[in-house]
Amino acid sequence: MKKIIISIIVILAVVLVGVGIYIFNLFNAFEQGVSDSYQSTDRERSELREDDGDESPDSFTILILGIDESESRSESDKFEENDFRTDTMILATFNKDENEVKLVSIPRDTLSYFPEENYFDKITHAHRINGPDSSISAVESLLNVPVDYYARVNMNALVDVVDTLDGVNFDVPFDMDEPDSTDDGRTVLEAGEQELNGEEALAVVRSRKVDTDLGRGNRQLEMVEAILEKAKSTGALTQIDDLISVVAGNSRHNLESETVRSLATYYAFNTVEFNNVQLRGTDYWNPGNGAYFYMADPEHLYAISQTIRESLGMDAPDPNDLINIRLSDYIVPYEYLDDYMLNEYEPEVTPYFLEDGYENQYGDGFDVPEAQEAEGDPDIEGEDGYIPEEGTEEEGAGDGMDQGYDESYDESYDNGEGTNEDYYNDAGEYYDDGTASDESYY
């Protein structure tokens, strides 16, 4: 009997040592993975946090940036990570006190102010100015809420995560035929609820041929929730080493390992409610050149800002601190703002949605009807978009991609005063002032 007991103890000791080694290796892999994918920003913290003495580590925001980057695209276009536009932009607000995560999807064409450039442009273009820093600045100026962290992922991350989780269940809204992650093949899907692999999940979140970019934004929110639910329900901690490898190879972020570990542990073992919404707005066609933009609804902007700031323990926003609200009557794409308009101008009339007795139609900004007033750019694929006449000079013209030009030149901007000699800005990037011919874009 004593020999049997000793044998059992020895076996247990061997097992425990093995488990200990595995945990130690897993911990090292985690630390290495977080370290390898870590990329700091040019700032230590948001300026909107400077007066926030009661900042809580349990309530913070993460800006999720999805870029349409792949190895083949990087090699063929000779693009670095910061050269890509953001096809997905979701601001996640984590509130442990309420066991809640609020997700705001910002359509890529949303007309937003770029502090570094001092003009309004599509928010998708911000990333090509100075990477995540510029995207963060644009979101903060749009919503007047601090962005505490960012996480940027490429298309391979979604494919690999879904495959690591052995697929995800999703109700595909319509038939799809999309290029795969390498752009060498096609992914064909039929409408209906089904189990998707990584390539199929990528096709779902990329497609915008049927319901434009607004519909795609809603699908992306739904896919995020579906992946989180699958990860939680299947006990993804058993696959954590594979997931760490996926994250390390396909993302960049400025989250410390302690924050990531705490976040993952908490949301893996607690029931968390996800509330998501897509920023409401209306279609806007630039009178100068007919280019399409998405004009955010000021009432919805304010409701979202107020709710997020409350979740972060901050004071309610002053409407004049949201530049899209303060300058709502004077927003012109690519037009530089003078010091007075930027820093001093305030409208004489209080916004209608802040008048006494008025009830915001969007409630808290997240409990809103599914119906969308705007249709989004009907020519999102650029087949029949507006193209300036050859040799003409048009005020405010620019933005080649949405007018039918090659997407690789979609870093353009214009102040309406350029000439053909001004096709390169100070950073050496190509842009259009409206005087270029079709040939200038190739």
What keywords describe this structure?
442 residues; alpha+beta; Aminopeptidase; 6-stranded mixed sheet; two-stranded antiparallel ribbon; globular; disordered C terminus; LCP family protein; LytR_CpsA_psr
Structure description:
- It is a single chain.
- With 442 residues, this protein is α+β, with helices and mostly antiparallel strands.
- It has a domain at 47-325: 3-Layer(aba) Sandwich (Aminopeptidase).
- 33% of the residues lie in helices and 17% in strands.
- It has 12 helices and 14 strands.
- The strands form 5 sheets. Strands 11-6-1-2-3-12 form a 6-stranded mixed sheet, with helices on both faces.
- A hairpin with a 6-residue loop joins β13 (281-285) and β14.
- α5 packs across α6 (198-206) and α5 (155-164) runs antiparallel to α8.
- It is globular, with a radius of gyration of 24 Å.
- The termini are far apart.
- The model is unreliable at 380-442 (pLDDT under 50).
- Residues 360-442 are annotated as: Disordered.
- Residues 370-397, 404-442 have a biased composition (Acidic residues).
- InterPro entries: LytR/CpsA/Psr_CW_biosynth, LytR_CpsA_psr.
